[in-house]
Design a protein that fits this description.
This is L-threonylcarbamoyladenylate synthase. Its EC number is 2.7.7.87. The chain is an alpha/beta fold. A ten-stranded mixed sheet has the order 1-8-2-3-7-4-6-5-9-10, sandwiched between helices. β9 and β10 form a beta hairpin.
């Protein structure tokens, strides 16, 4: 049965954030809010977390997982990024964008696109997500909480708790955060390619 945590959207309680971060370090799979919709998150190196997210969302091995980063210091350890791409990504973050880039050796092989060896990274513009990342001290393996055969992600913490009670370990609820997922921009070739239009404005990449 999932633990349920109700947190303030603007001033998240440090004790609650600490409890959730500890549970992630110990292998928990959590549902948490972001600036584009709710997501599933687990520790970066957790094979169990990867398999559980794949099972909940019915994903194949071509799915790009997202590594949620607190800042550019973390992001730079996970992906190869040249100066031109860095400037483009920097100008759009924090925000509702996911960027696909070639992964470094810091990223577990199980998270990479099998052919391209790329991974998705992003820096969210959400108080609760940032507080959790700061407390965790490392990137969070993440995937949009979009269930199979459903058109939109789940948006209410109580509903997530109700429907995924035996599939996740904790639900972090800070209120509605919308249904539109991130805009995904693929920079793996060096040039931007918008592969999903979402909450982030695409004009700067077109």
């Amino acid at each position: 049965m999932a633990k349920y945590f109700d947190v303030h959207p603007d001033n998240p309680q440090p004790r609650t954030i600490g409890t959730v971060a500890d549970s992630i370090r110990n292998g928990a799979l959590v549902a948490y809010p972001t600036d584009s919709c709710y997501a599933l998150g687990s520790r970066l190196g957790s094979k169990d977390g990867i398999s559980r997210i794949r099972a909940i969302r019915d994903l194949d091995d071509r799915h790009h997982f997202t590594l949620m980063c607190q800042n550019f210091a973390q992001l730079g350890q996970l992906v190869h990024i040249d100066n031109d791409v860095f400037r483009a990504v920097k100008a759009a973050t924090p925000g509702a964008y996911t960027f696909i880039l070639p992964a470094t050796k810091e990223v577990p092989r199980a998270l990479l696109h099998p052919k391209k060896k790329t991974v998705g990274v992003r820096i969210p513009d959400h108080v609760v997500t940032q507080a959790l990342l700061a407390e965790l001290g490392e990137p969070l393996l993440s995937s949009t909480l979009l269930l199979p055969d459903e058109a939109e992600p789940l948006t209410q913490g109580w509903e997530i708790k109700e429907r995924l009670d035996h599939l996740v370990d904790a639900v972090l609820d800070s209120g509605d955060c919308g249904t539109e997922p991130t805009t995904v921009v693929d920079f793996s070739s060096g040039e931007p390619e918008v592969v999903r239009r979402g909450a982030g404005d695409t004009t700067r990449f077109e």
